[in-house]
Amino acid sequence: MQALRVGLTGGIGSGKSTVAALLAGCGAAVIDADAISRQVTAPAGAAIGPIIQQFGADFVTPDGALDRERMRQLVFSEPGAKKRLEDLIHPLVGAETARQFALALQSGCACVVFDVPLLVESGRWRQQVDQVLVVDCSEETQIQRVMARNGWGREAVLQVMAGQASRHQRLAAADICINNGEGVSLEALELLVRQLAQRFGL
Q1: Could you tell me how far CA 95 lies from the centroid of its own chain?
Q2: pLDDT tens for residues 102-111?
Q3: Amino acid 112: pLDDT
Q4: In what order do the strands lie in the sheet with 111-115?
Q5: CA 7 to CA 143: how far, in whole Å?
Q6: Which distant-in-sequence residues (6+ apart) come within 8 Å of 21 by Cβ?
Q7: From residue 167, how far is each of 37, 43, 122, 187 by CA, in Å?
Q8: How far apart are CA 50 and CA 140, in angstroms?
C-alpha cells in the first residue's frame, strides 16, 4: 500500500518541529527539509563549492560551513540573493529528500511526513503531498517564542516572518490545522498529535 504523504509546515516559532518529533514518535517517517539544507551547507557539504563560486569565499566560515548570519544579512539587503542561494540548495535538498522517501517506502512505513518550513511559499510541494498539515499560532506568539528561544530582537524576528508566507496564506493552504497557540500545553499538543497519527494509519 502506498504511504500517506503529509506536508508539515508552520511559521517560525509555531512549534512545527515539536509536532514533527511527536509524529516520528508515533511511527511516521519524518523527512526534515531544513535539516537536509543544513547538512548540504555544513563543512564539506555538497553546496559549499557552488556557494563559494556564486557568492565568494567570504560567505563560508573558517571551518568550511555556510556563514548563515552573513548570508541572512545579504538576503535581506539584496532581493536577488535569496533566489540565487535557493537555486543552488533546492536541487540538492530535493535529491536527498527523494532518497529518504524511497528508503521510507522500502521500510513499509504507513505515513511519510515532509517537514518543510517554506511549503506554502515554494508552490511545488502541494502536488507532491496528499495532505498539508499546518501548525498554527498567533503572530505575536511566534515573535515571543523566537525572541526567547534565539535571543533575537523583535525586528530580527519580524524580518524572518516577512520572508515567510502569512498566517492567512498558510491556513488557506491547510487540509488539517493544529492549534499550538498560547496556553496549549505540551500534554495537550501530544494528545492532538496522537489522534492525528491514528487518522494517518499509525
Answers
A1: 16
A2: 999 999 999 9
A3: 96
A4: 29-32, 111-115, 4-9, 131-136, 176-179
A5: 23
A6: 30
A7: 23, 34, 15, 24
A8: 37
Q: Scanning the structure block, which residue is given the C-alpha cell 509546515? A: 9
> Per the structure block, which three cell numbers stand in for 82?
535569496
d(CA 123, CA 101): 20
Residue 1 — very low, low, confident or very high, per pLDDT cuts 50/70/90?
A: low
State residue 31's pLDDT score: 96
- Beta-carbon neighbour count of residue 168 at 10 Å? 8
Give the three cell numbers for residue 76.
535581506
For residue 2, name the pLDDT band (cuts at 50, 70, 90). confident
- Report strand pairing: 131-136 vs 29-32: unpaired
CA–CA–CA angle 82, 84, 86 (5° rounding): 70
